[in-house]
């Protein structure tokens, strides 16, 4: 903006009617041009001049600050450039024009000033980093690990174990390579393993279950023995229904293509065990409550006739 | 003093004494390099040992036309970076009790000075932990290991301009991290007499 344009817009400027950014341009020009500033001061309304010296002084300071900020943000170096120069200045002072540019920016930019202070102090931080000194034990350990005999298979495995990522990647690649080649034998091996587990695992579980359920079975027997004859028959009928349902479910689940074969075999063993202990067709006479009750014994005989030959136990043998 | 390259030649011939001299010559530097990457004493001992074991196994691959130090630094740096990548997946170990490690200047430093040094060290360690892999590497090699730009460029296999750029960026990143940490505990830089 030139002085002629300033004078044209002066009345609106003084009246406060000028919109931005025109108002900002007027402020910048007035700050820079003493004659125009004088003219503006003379034309200022009388009521605004009552405290003119003081207000003009404070306004001038504010305007100067505002102008500097505006200039910094428009024509000065960007914070990004200054940060780069500050980082370079850690190694030594910058050349004069660059140094001057940085200083001018730092006057107006508190954020970069903070960073400059921190970067300036970086060498002191680096000096505080502890320095280690290798002791004799360290040397001895290194020499023992290097000049000893060649690492064996176990040590190689241990070294690989320290890099689990490598181990998993290797395992994945091996699996991808071997699966198509060994698909058939692998499936057979898996199936045989599954079968072994389905046989071996229940045997271990049976002992635990036998122990754990012993008390409850005894309680159930006592309860059956204590109820009346009619009630006992009703309970017995219910028990036989439940048993039939469980047997059917287990048989369905034991289809040859069932993935849950081993687990179902385990469950079936539990069921067998339970039936052996508390069921009406128990092969353990001493555990059968019907032994003490002739009526219940008759009912059991009737239900036995309805079951397949050999009882459910034979059906469930794997 | 016999140059490294000659010692390596003797090592290749199976001379155990030469290998021992090579280890003793570089062990402090490698231990510190490992410590600067891990920030943990025990880890750095293990890592430094791994570096020497690796070096021993790779000695046959060393091209004697190249400076041994540069080659060894590249090898050590690769292992340190690998370790740093793995370590960053786990929570960082900060605040290692390093007094027992240095224990050097403590006798001549005033208590206030010692506190100030410890404060700076812990701040720096935490700030370093927040750096990316490339930035940490640049700071370690230039500021803590004291290599010049040419050496770093040769070690990393990149132009000097790239090294400079990485270094400046790392310094800005580190400066910001320190500033953030200090502001978090509201300690202005001036309070340390800077």
Mind explaining what this structure looks like?
The complex is a heterodimer of chains A (318) and B (194). In chain A, 76% of the residues lie in helices and 0% in strands. Chain A has 318 residues and is mostly helical. Chain A folds into 3 domains: 3-126, no CATH class; 136-181, no CATH class; 195-316. In chain A, helix 1 (3-15) packs across helix 2 and helix 5 (79-88) runs parallel beside helix 7. Chain A is elongated and about 120 Å long. Chain A starts with a helix and ends with a helix. Mean pLDDT of chain A is 67; it is low at 50-54 and 279-318. Chain B is mainly α and 194 residues long. Chain B has 2 domains: 1-93, RNA polymerase sigma factor, region 2, helix turn helix motif (Rna Polymerase Sigma Factor, Chain: A, Orthogonal Bundle); 96-194, Winged helix-like DNA-binding domain superfamily/Winged helix DNA-binding domain (Arc Repressor Mutant, subunit A, Orthogonal Bundle), CATH 1.10.10.10. Helix content of chain B is 72%, strand content 0%. The longest helix of chain B is centred in the C-terminal third of the chain and has 25 residues, at 160-184. Chain B starts with a helix and ends in a 10-residue tail after the last helix. Chains A and B meet through helix 5, helix 7 and helix 8 of A and helix 2, helix 3, helix 6 and helix 9 of B.
